[in-house]
Amino acid sequence: MIRLRALTKNIKPFVTLSNRSYTASRLSTNLVPWRRLSLPQNIIRRHYSSVAAAEPFLNGTSSTYVEEMFEAWQEDPKSVHKSWDVFFRNAERGALPGQAYTSPQSLSAGVPGIPVPSGIPSVQAGVPDAKIIADHLAVQAIIRSYQVRGHNIADLDPLEIGAADLDTSVPPELQMAAYHLDDHDLDRVFMLPPTTYIGGNERYLPLRQIIDRLQAIYCEHIGAEYMFINNLQQTDWIRKRLETPGITAMTKEEKRTMLARLVRSTRFEEFLAKKFSSEKRFGLEGCEVLIPAMKTVIDCSSAFGVESFIIGMPHRGRLNVLANVCRKPLEQIFCQFDSKLEADDEGSGDVKYHLGMSHERLNHATNKNIKLAVVANPSHLEAVNPVVQGKCKAEQYYKGDIEGKSAMSILLHGDAAFSGQGVVYETMHLSDLPSYTSHGTIHLVVNNQIGFTTDPRFSRSSPYCTDVARVVNAPIFHVNGDDPEAVAHVCKVAAEWRAEWGKDVIIDLVSYRRNGHNEIDEPMFTQPLMYKKIRQMPVVLKKYADKLIAEGTVTQQEYEEECAKYDRICEEALLNAKKLTAIHNKEWLDSPWHGFFEEKDPMHLPKTGIPEDMIRHIAEKIGSEPGDGFTIHGGLKRTLKARLDMTNKREADWAIGEALAFGSLLKDGIHVRLSGQDVERGTFSHRHHVLHDQNVDMKIHVPLNHLWPEQAEYIVCNSSLSEFAVLGFELGYSMSNPNALVLWEAQFGDFANTTQCIFDQFISSGQAKWVRQSGIVCLLPHGYEGMGPEHSSARLERFLQMTSEEADHFPPITNSFPMQQLHEINWIVCNLTTPANYFHVLRRQIAFPFRKPLIIMSPKSLLRHPEAKSSFDEFLEGSEFKRVITDETVAAENPEKVKKLLFCSGKIYYDLAKERIAAKKANDIAIIRLEQIAPFPFDLVKEEIQRYPKADIFWVQEEHKNMGAWTYIKPRFLSTLAKIDISKRVKYIGRHASAATATGNKYTHIQESAMIMRAIFK
């Protein structure tokens, strides 16, 4: 509208800008209705007496071109052809219809100050030559078509047997016939528009040269997709770096460096193939150019100020990346092939092509020190992506880097996985979210043009494997992997893009896989024609070396000496590797926590209580209105008042208990981050850690960030509707710094199903495989409230099943037993019943001299349950987390008279306690709560069983028999009973086995709950 107003501000009889209507009496009845036309075309048509008169002028053009021409004219009238200059000037003066366009004396007159080459036809004054104008506009359309669709016919496949976009046809818009031009027009000279840089300093070129240059830029070894980006500055920025003549040229020194890097990449794989011929290594053969590509990205990014690079990648090429990008000592890599070597530290270890590492070295291109970390990850495809992003975000946060200039992420992908794995899409959609952005990731796709044995024509529906990146406006550069210089150029552009715009960018290295999926696999079974061609392909190193030798950049002798030099390095490293006596797993840590474990007693647990004045200060802050004209919702005022009332009674509910844990840690300088769907308010509207002004958009107040002047920062952020990527992100965030409390909350615990890969592959087994500790806390709302099978169960049984604790052996009980258990187990699983225990278990996460993941079956109805409150006394100094909460009723006073001893966990305790009173069984039944289920509190369970010697023992749960804690606790109870040497057994009371986690019928739910109570209190 601004452009329209500027163009027509003096043509009031024809345009009413306020309502976009037009005066019918002033328009020809032959005109197409205005709503069918884009605004710039509409303006032009109104200066002709009929459609017929206007069409020759508009033939072949588009609204986008006219807009661009008008914008160029606004900036500099001399930048457009004189005919456009006259038209726009007349329109501004308010020329009547049909009068705005005046043919210049001659089109060959050109723009003042710029000579027009011979060959541009002229026209008689006052007589517009529609053919000339139409042809010029057609040329502009041709240029744009190459910019938009040139990649579709680019020479990207080194094998020359297919098309990267799975389509061998030529788009019609890239054929001259579509523009009514033929071979006779190739030598005609045309003026270049301001939307291209192919001319450099030249403003006029013959059509033949225009097309040749466009084909060289867009249709050879680089295929660029960027015109879909809805930012004119960004598309112009890319155009300039692709189209400017000579911009891809490399210096002699750059070419020699490229050759040396290719030598290392290629000879490393050849060395491993020769020395370890029967071993799987998932080598890089066929895409050896990845190593110089990554090094180019790192060199350029280091020049822009990046100091830390966090890398995530699949198994293919990992050893080569560790050796030749990160420069991990080769002997540490080679010793991984020795199956006789055992680890001299904790952990089961992992296969060599899953391991991560962290290494600092000097970047010789910039003479700056850089840190490179490769995140350990399993084969589960692309699951590492969000972990890398979270780790990168954390590094930026701790550096105070709000623009992402100091740390960046690099993600490597396989083509089939990039298009096939949903976590790629989920992670992409975190890329621009304020609390999750890492300010641009450079993605390198090692495009094998095959997924294991699956042809890409059967593994994706999109033209390219990279099309998912279009949803976030990330430019995509497809490049032929056998052209190292083209690869180097797009890597430089990608690094500069990330530095300039802070957004993702994709480099699609179209290559091939010389061997099968691994070195033992036979690819000829399924891709015979492809692999016949591959067998005939010379390696890219040989092709590039021959090129440089032919052009005189290097000699044959220099090339051979470079190869021999690296071979000697590998041989010496192998000799050193054979001298090693053990594998050190800690040398493969991707985030070493320097100094964290030093001078700490692993068996000592500091107390977690806090002074009452601190309790009151925090509780009053989170119960007070912000003031300063900040208007909060009326319902929220009642919530805050209720908090103050509880504070006055020295009581805390679940929300206050959580706030006390967070606030006290913040005072101690511990950064707290809580993330997940709707966590700011809380799914159950209980938390309200972010208050919103009811009258001002985006005006918020976070009380926990206003407790003390020098406190740490509390970040609470609603996530995208993703579980897989967001939990992976928070896991990565937790890995960077052990002195931070990082929590992820599922909207409902059931939704953790979609992130099971992160639990299975990273959280439960990360320490065993990679010596990778993490203190992440996962809050999974759990409880049977009659809300159906998708809003009841967090699948407690799955987390318990994955614990590493021995069930059939009663451990020796010592003073350090509780800490010994915690030190040895892989993670902690709790089902809590009191705000005080929630408070202590969170503070304990930071008090530990080590880090373990914490899984909490967090409550729903207990968030407001009148009995689920804790006295301030339970938070005070000297208090601590209770692994087991014993019975404190009259039953405990007369344990000899107790007939039934009920063990339970979580919400069902309150149902049991209520029913016990109603049934008047307080003397007969004792109820014990297991707050920490794993590691199992053998010592305390043994004490409780012995306390009630005449009681029958029951395990009571609200979950179905094949779910919940039953299958986990049963063998541990049996081990405990065997230790006591009594013949009792533990009996089950709960719902029957089921396929669904819960009923969806409210009446059935009530009946099932009543059945449990009858079984106990009958």
UniProtKB/TrEMBL annotation:
Keywords: Calcium, Glycolysis, Isopeptide bond, Magnesium, Metal-binding, Mitochondrion, Nucleus, Oxidoreductase, Thiamine pyrophosphate, Transit peptide, Ubl conjugation. One of its GO terms (biological process) is tricarboxylic acid cycle. Residues 652-865 form the Transketolase-like pyrimidine-binding domain. Pfam families: 2-oxogl_dehyd_N, E1_dh, OxoGdeHyase_C, Transket_pyr. The keyword Nucleus applies. GO terms for cellular component: mitochondrion; nucleus; oxoglutarate dehydrogenase complex. It comes from the Eukaryota. SMART domains: Transket_pyr (SM00861). GO terms for molecular function: metal ion binding; oxoglutarate dehydrogenase (succinyl-transferring) activity; thiamine pyrophosphate binding. Its EC number is 1.2.4.2. It is found in: Mitochondrion; Nucleus. This is 2-oxoglutarate dehydrogenase complex component E1. The lineage of its organism: Eukaryota, Metazoa, Spiralia, Lophotrochozoa, Annelida.
